[in-house]
Amino acid sequence: LQGIIQAYKSGITLRGNTTSLGRWDFSGSFFFSISAITTIGYGNLSPSTAVGRIFCIVFALFGIPLNLVLLNEIGQLMLLGVQHCARRLEEVFHWQNKASFLMKTCALVTGLLLFLLLPPLLFSDKEGWSYEEGFYYSFITLSTIGFGDYVIGMNPDRTYPSWYKNVISLWILFGMAWLALVIKFCINILE
């Protein structure tokens, strides 16, 4: 009873009659790793031992720079794909500036669909969130703000498929790379 009272004073509230023990299974650990190296840090899961905290620090010291390299490479591959498609359009249709503009527009629209507009539908289905809440989660996550007010796979009243957190982890990596390209493009326009 003392533990329950202390948990309540610490801000923990009872949400259901079940316990989620799967937080440190492969999917939960992978999701934690992605949220750590992307610096999202939702705050819903953290190491509780001294050894775990030290490991997390060392992991982050190496993981964050490696993740930045990975995101840069993914972004460059996306950009090369867009540039390659634009060159092919120029060759086939003999368009000069139109092909580049068309491909950038297509890349922007495709990214909007894949990373911001369609994922909220999945979150609505799996989490029970409204579309607006799913869109909010998508942007807050991909921009690495990560408030922690919405985190996937944490509702003890729901059963999540085994692939769910892994797919969302990959969505985060590719979505962050895409959003970084969009932000870089906006910076170039502003400059």
TrEMBL record:
Indicate the segments forming the Potassium channel domain, all copies.
20-78, 113-190
Q: Transmembrane segments in this chain: where?
A: 24-45, 51-71, 101-123, 135-155, 167-190
Locations listed in the record:
Membrane
Q: Which key words tag this protein in UniProt?
A: Ion channel, Ion transport, Membrane, Potassium, Transmembrane, Transmembrane helix, Transport
Question: What's the protein's topology in the membrane?
Answer: Multi-pass membrane protein
- Recorded GO CC terms: plasma membrane
- Molecular function GO terms recorded: outward rectifier potassium channel activity; potassium ion leak channel activity
GO BP annotations listed:
stabilization of membrane potential
Family membership, please give it: Belongs to the two pore domain potassium channel (TC 1.A.1.8) family.
Q: What protein does this entry describe?
A: KCNKH protein
Species source reads Hippolais icterina
